């Protein structure tokens, strides 16, 4: 596991982290540069987890100039409430059979359960996960066993029990109030 930014602790106010546009773009640029440096982009499928990873997938696909991308939809939460975790559930995907190697993009990895489930799902689909990138990880994630841990790179880290709100979520939450 490797962090892509040296000073990468995000500050929280009342356990809430406001992930702004600058944090987001800085992270996506770092991830894109690392992907371009370490992988032959034409031979790799870029896959994100819906719902959270879709914005990241779109941004990074533009930054690395790769239009063909994949998505896996899973469900891990029981509601829209913070930390209301349930069981990992696979819902659907739009993966192709064109590439056997893939890079997985996740917006946030809290406990690693979704990541583990998706890696197993991709193995069943005869895809090798050669890299995992996350914008944010929970500090407790460092203590969790993951088969492909060495291939995981992240940009920001948060303290246990903090909750991240991306800038687009914050704006939408304010409109609903």
Write the layout of secondary structure elements.
Layout: E1 2-3, E2 16-19, H1 21-38, E3 45-50, H2 54-63, E4 69-77, E5 85-93, E6 101-109, H3 113-124, E7 128-138, E8 152-158, E9 163-166, H4 167-176
Parallel strand pairs: 1-8, 2-9, 3-4, 3-6, 6-7, 7-8
Antiparallel strand pairs: 4-5
Provide an overview of this structure.
- The protein is α/β, with parallel strands linked by helices and 177 residues long.
- 28% of the residues lie in helices and 34% in strands.
- It contains four helices and nine strands; from the N terminus they run ββαβαβββαβββα.
- The strands form two sheets. It has a seven-stranded mixed beta sheet, with helices on both faces. It has a two-stranded parallel sheet with strand order 2-9.
- Strand 4 and strand 5 form a beta hairpin.
- Helix 1 (21-38) crosses helix 2.
- The termini are far apart.
Quick summary of this structure?
This protein is of the alpha/beta class. It contains 4 helices and 9 strands. The protein has helices at 21-38, 54-63, 113-124, 167-176, and strands at 2-3, 16-19, 45-50, 69-77, 85-93, 101-109, 128-138, 152-158, 163-166.
């Amino acid at each position: 596991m490797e962090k892509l930014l040296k000073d990468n602790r995000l500050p929280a106010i009342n356990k809430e982290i406001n992930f702004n546009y600058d944090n987001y773009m800085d992270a996506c640029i770092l991830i894109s540069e690392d992907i371009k440096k370490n992988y032959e982009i034409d031979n790799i499928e870029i896959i994100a987890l819906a719902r959270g990873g879709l914005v990241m997938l779109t941004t990074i696909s533009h930054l690395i100039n790769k239009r063909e991308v994949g998505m896996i939809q899973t469900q891990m939460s029981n509601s829209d409430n913070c930390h209301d975790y349930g069981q990992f559930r696979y819902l659907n995907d739009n993966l192709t059979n064109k590439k056997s190697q893939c890079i997985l993009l996740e917006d946030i990895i809290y406990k690693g359960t979704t990541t583990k489930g998706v890696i197993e799902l991709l193995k069943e689909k005869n895809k090798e996960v050669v890299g995992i990138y996350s914008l944010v990880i929970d500090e407790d994630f460092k203590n969790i066993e993951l088969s492909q841990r060495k291939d995981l790179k992240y940009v920001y880290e948060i303290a246990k029990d903090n909750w991240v709100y991306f800038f687009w979520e914050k704006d939408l939450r304010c409109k609903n109030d």
